[in-house]
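Re: weekly structure request thread

Next one in the queue (246 aa):
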Amino acid sequence: MSEDSGLLMTLGRRSGPLDTVLIHPAGGGLGQYLRLARRLARHGRVYGIRAAGLLPGERPERSVPRMTAAYRELLDALPRPPALLVGWSLGGVLAWELAAEAAAGAGAEAQGTAGGAPPPAVVMIDSHPELEPDNALLRSHPLDSIEHSVNGLSSGLDPALLRSTASAHLTAARTHRVRQRSDTPTLLLACASPDREAQIARWRSLATHLTVRDLDCGHFDVFTPPHQDELLSHIQPFIDGLTAAR
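Done, posted below.
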């Protein structure tokens, strides 16, 4: 990982047709993405966006719209628009919102001029467009699970900052409802859960170009072996298709 300033980090520098941005899940770190980043780096540059709140002096964000607005500025500052946005959990929701905004903007521009980069495709790793109070994730002590997950994949984080950031992101996830529709190519990887059918149905009502693959594991087990191998086996064909199209 490079020593880039701010929230945007460079995870892979190889040139290619498919630049990717990985967006943090609840908890704010990027450690769980490192193996996935190496795989994506075969196809082009890879960046990551971590959350504010993990370093002293930073304040964590409690709103998905405000995170989306901040991250849009980071994407606009890249050398070229990313072709793919990837996120686990809350990160997938942020990826969707950013891609839907880009698609809406591209559509408006196309009415006046032709050309320009197409909006990014999206990979959502067990993301939920809304979390009802009876959602299984909210019944499973999610704050403790987020802390355990981030602690297991990152080192040197202040436990107090980690907990406050995870709490802020849990508030953001609980209060947000995805309403934007988009036809950008999207892959949803849905974990085993009593809510999986409702999760998929809701995304199908929003995404007109949606591919769904099931993961035979729980939400917080995605990046543990052997489940990460299953994750990569589903993502690779989607990436290959995007790369071939470009």
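The chain has one domain: 8-245. Helices lie at 34-40, 64-76, 90-110, 142-153, 159-175, 196-206, 227-245.
Next request, please.
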